[in-house]
Amino acid sequence: MAVGEFDLIRRYFQHPLAQAGARAGVRLGNGDDCALLQPAPGQVLAVSTDMLVQGRHFFPDVAPRALGHKALAVNLSDLAAMGARPLAFTLALALPQIDEAWVQEFATGLLELADAHGCALVGGDTCAGPLNLCLTVFGELPPEQALRRSAAQPGDELYVSGHLGQARLALEALRGRWPLPAAALQRCRQRLEWPQPRVALGLALRGQAHAAIDLSDGLLADLGHVLRASGVAAQMDVPALLASAAVGPELRALALLEPALALTCLLAGGDDYELLFTAPVAARAAVERAGQEAGVALSRIGRIVAMADAGPPCRLVDAQGRPYTLPPGVELAGFDHFA
After folding, report:
1. In Å, what is the CA distance from 250 to each residue of 25, 85, 180, 183?
2. Which residues are annotated as a binding site?
3. What residues bind Mg(2+) 5, as annotated (predicted)?
4. Using an 8 Å Cβ cutoff, are 304 and 234 in contact?
5. Is 329 left (phi over 0), alpha (psi -120 to 50) or beta?
6. What is the dihedral of CA 30, 86, 188, 218, to 10 degrees?
7. What pLDDT is attached to residue 310?
8. From the annotation, which residues make up the binding site for ATP?
9. Coil, strand or helix at 71
10. Collapsing DSSP states into helix, strand and coil, what is residue 28?
11. What is 157-194 written as a DSSP string?
12. Which of 59, 145, 244, 269 is the most exposed place for a label (fewest CB within 10 A)?
């Protein structure tokens, strides 16, 4: 017997966390016309939506379990950047056909990450069509502690979490632009297909950081969003970045052979889903503790300065503050969904 829309939902997307009383803040989960969410007293809802389209955001042969994980991870990363605690999410899923084995694996990857972060699947929609995933995620936080893009201040130090550029390097290897040994490709592909949202870090930075953003489109592109929203500029210390924990072993090895490609991955890679944030100098010790509590390495890579009358919003400089000359061939444009 063919599986229909509602059978599909009942079999694979009935989430125990969405049942009444299973998750604080979820008054009514999926199965009705609307879900009912109620944040804790003194909290507001943080809401974000991300869409993943086959051929644009993922390869057709990606493992469905990895795709389920990433579909939720990129949304949770937005909550992390705001400093919000995950509460619930909805899923709109278009499928070319119902392949129950594929759906089972997809749902497993999706709901394993949901369970890990206490984020209840409370509704959505399914239909036939080209493979497309659209999730809306809801979190909660005290409004005065939100890590808004518009809150960076001159004098703030500029930080990134984790390693950057590995996802872009995996993409270049899968496209045949740069060969990687099997073990290195596996590590980089893990970062591309199984990103880990820095929710714990976002929560630990509340009250310490000023502004934050998650790195989805590339370091320089996403920093540009913060600078424009805050009306400030930045100086990025490229030697400090290259010497920091932000550069994993694959990028460090690549920098010796193809420095232009390594810097392209590092500065414009995209799909990192790490946090870029600013914090005052006085908070340096607290920021370091936040990284330790969250179990993620932090790298200090520059500072926020007042907006100049002319020149780029972000200046690439050396340790002495002089302009840094990039090698020929570095691509600095971030990811554009319509390019």
Report:
1. 42, 32, 9, 10
2. 33, 48-50, 57, 78, 124-125, 149, 214, 216-217, 271, 335
3. 217
4. yes
5. left
6. 110
7. 61
8. 124-125, 149, 216
9. helix
10. strand
11. EEEEES-BSHHHHHHHHHTTSS---HHHHHHHHHHHHS
12. 59
pTM beyond 0.90: the answer is yes
Binding residues for substrate: 57, 271, 335
Q: Find the angle CA(335)-CA(233)-CA(158) to the nearest 5 degrees.
A: 75
pLDDT less than 70: residues of the chain: 1-4, 20-21, 55, 309-310, 334-339
Half-sphere exposure of 335 (CA within 13 A, CB side): 19
Domains of the chain, earliest start first: 5-144 (3.30.1330.10), 148-317 (3.90.650.10)
Six-digit token string for 160? 């990134």
In our burial notation (b when 16+ CB lie closer than 10 A, e otherwise), range 25-62 reads bbebbbeeeebebebeeebeebbbebebebeebbeeeb
Name the residue type at position 93: L
144-181: per-residue pLDDT in tens? 999 999 999 999 999 999 999 999 999 999 888 888 89
Cα separation, 333 vs 323, in Å, equals 19
**Averaged confidence pLDDT in the chain:** 91
